[in-house]
Amino acid sequence: MENATVYAEDDDVKENVVEDSTVGNEDKTRTGIWGQIAGTAGCLRYLVASGWSVARREMVLSVSGLISALITTLYPFAIAGLVGGLARHDETLIIFSLAGLAVYSIVPSFLSAMGVHYRLRVADKIGHHFDREIADYLSRPRTLSVFYDSKVADALGLLIARKGTLGQSFNILGNVAPLFISQVVLLVLAVLTDWRLIFVAIAGLGETLFQTKVMAWQAEADDASAPYVRQIQQLVSAGLDPQMSADLRTLNSQSDLHEILRKRVHNWRAPIHVRDNKQAAVSIGSSVVYYAVAAAVLISMGVDTVHGHVSIEQLTAACALVPKLTNSLAMVLASVTALGSSVHAVDRYLWLASHIETMQANEANNNNESANENDESANKNEESATLPDGVASQQDTVVDGYSAGDGAPIAVCPHQSLFNELRYGIDVDHLTITYPGHDSPAVSDLRFRIPAGHVLAVVGENGAGKTTLSLCLLGLLDYDGHIVVDGKELSGIGNWHSRVSAVFQDFLRPRMIAAEALTLGCVDGHDGVFGSAEVAAQALSRAGVEDVLEALPDGLSTPLGLEDGGKQLSGGQWQKIALARGCTRPHPLLLVLDEPTSALDPESEKRLFSAYERIAKDNARYGGITVIVSHRLPSTLLADEVLVLDHGKLVEFGSPEALLRADGYYAELRRLQAAGYRDGDGEAESAGEPEKIGDK
Length: 696
What we know:
alpha/beta; ABC transporter transmembrane region fold; Rossmann fold; 2 domains; six-stranded mixed β-sheet; four-stranded antiparallel β-sheet; 57% helix; cell membrane; ABC1_TM_sf; cell inner membrane; membrane; ABC transporter ATP-binding protein
């Protein structure tokens, strides 16, 4: 069994809770009833610990439900006492029995309502606690690798599909615990009433114990259906998204989507139907056995009552106990089944937490090793930190099949200059990136150098690996090989994310006030930056997209999106917002622009290139590097170096002029795009001619 370490938060204190948990781990599954019970107990212990950490007062008050359940166990004996008192004309027994019935009728209802109220409050707080923890765990890894892990995606799909289950699991536990305890009390009292009732108890307990198998079936069904849950969510999202719906209607493919969705739903429900059929067979068979045993015992006791061997009170108590046991067992079975679903969701959460913590530990070990290597290198070069020969001359190198910088030594600099400015640049050595679950790398064995203050254009056809490379330079992907920033391994730089900025092709479209959308994430340790109209206006100016304000009726106070009665932006306007947001961080050491003008008209594109030229020159004063990722070659005019990728391989590297003179892959791409522009309209041609954008 796997040891999963999880944490329950109590104010600022993290309490370490170590439990055995393997339901969510497909590689290691529980075997045997005791293994399942141990794993379930571990999940329940963590659930209770989480509730205690976030809602102690409510948990204490929710115990009133348990007191209510214990009082209800007095009902059969109050009825038996009343019948016996009436038969023997015992007024004292009648009064006490009626008093017990009165307590049974009033007090449990009050205590039960109180218990339910506070259980729901605890469940609500636990639900929010788990939501925060899941968001926290997903934000911890430095890279995006966790989002490319199919097992993580399946676990998240289950947790999202059962949104609220983690919180409601405590409410279900609150229902099960009183029922279980009252059931035990009733069983003891039943056996004390007449020894033959032990057979009824055994029949009932046999059905209860069989629920461990039912819970295992539920876990198997969840695991089998989890991938389809994720696919169904994606298909439903596609049908609800306005832009995707436009594509579906244009292609007249709604029926195709419905058919695919129907098949996915069928595949999702198939293992659940199998589980339900097994559960129904167990329930029906167990119920038949239970009622047959109960009927035989009551008939036997009735015969003995006629012959005077059993008192009328005993028979009355037995008759009242058997239905009570039946109802209680049915409720326990239903609650235990529901608890099984919740326990599996908790176990999936524990697996997710353990998996991400393992990733963090591996990242920390790698970072520490890289940091130690960085410190050793810095100490060795503290006295003389000069740029090795050959570093600055790489921009005019044309390569075919290997990268620039081949054979050149890696520059090393003192660590104190790292986060104020770049002095030497970024060295990439034998860089290979493979996404989780994939056998072939997205990019392979890249070697090149970007001197400080330079602009690098990364070009290539779609799928060449351009975005993958940019994500890696930003520190968002795990990699093999070396990325060295001013002599320091990138994986060992703790706060690299705070010194870079980027605008991605698939950018964020937050539905919020325009000023907030522009300054989202622009904190840098200063209060009052998020939502600042001044910072937002500066970002718009720096990006050269001030014209987007003309589309906002209330300026930077305008809500974005129709959901809140705001302004619906076009794709190009959203991209301008994203571009400006990427310029809110002043003087980033690395600025990545991934397809920065893909949704813009030619006139806006020309203005933006001029703005980016200014930004690149401004960043260059601090050694900042600008990387422009595009399959549109006019962007290369801004570049000192051009890096050409083809199917994940670096095929050419050098200045635009040198690559054109070499008449290789880059020159061929330029000719193909120029021919396309000439065959198109005038606007496309003007956008494609680099001379009309500006000269460096």
